[in-house]
Amino acid sequence: MELCTRRMFSKQTLLFSIAAACCMPTAARAAGMLDKFTSDPFLNRDDLADAVKSLYMTYDSTSPYPHKFNEVLTKTQLRSLQFFINNNLEKEYVAHYIETMKPLITKIQKRLQEKGAEEWLHSMFEGTSTGYQLFERIDIQQGKRIFPCPYKAMLENCKKHLLTFSIEWRDVCTRWCIPAWTGVAEAVNIRISVQPGETCSVSLAQN
Length: 207
Hints:
The chain is an alpha+beta fold. It folds into 2 domains: 6-60; 71-204, no CATH class. Helix content is 61%, strand content 9%. α5 (90-100) packs parallel to α10 (169-187) and α6 packs antiparallel against α7 (118-124). 14% of the residues are buried.
């Protein structure tokens, strides 16, 4: 991977922005774009250049496998799960997760009273930064969320290159994902159905 300094990246980003602006067909549209630049909180973040640079450098790294932006989340979760399964503590691990989620669970419960059961799916997936950082894509359907499993490929890479993982993919599904999602749902009196796979789906259970 070629070294990309902050100064180089900022310069390239500025040149790209100027080129894009020059291609704008009308002054009115350019003015609208300028207004967005000055008023949009996202575009005015001081750390935006660092964020885009981090994204570029992550996806530019392909050795020993193509790296992704959710790698820290998935690898840390797999490492933790390996420890708890080795020590027969995965049930306690799930219970601890639900316990630490109580402030969020309280907020979800209030939203459910106002907006209905669909709000549980929103709060667990596309409505939280953890969700859209962990899942590359989330297909939003009424009563259902569908997304590629974030753990399968990473577990394969860990087992191949680190040689310190013995858990199986089904362990991740049956001893972490399903119990954790089900536990949070039960805490707010919601019933769900989970269909694990390379493409996973979580649905509101039919009464």
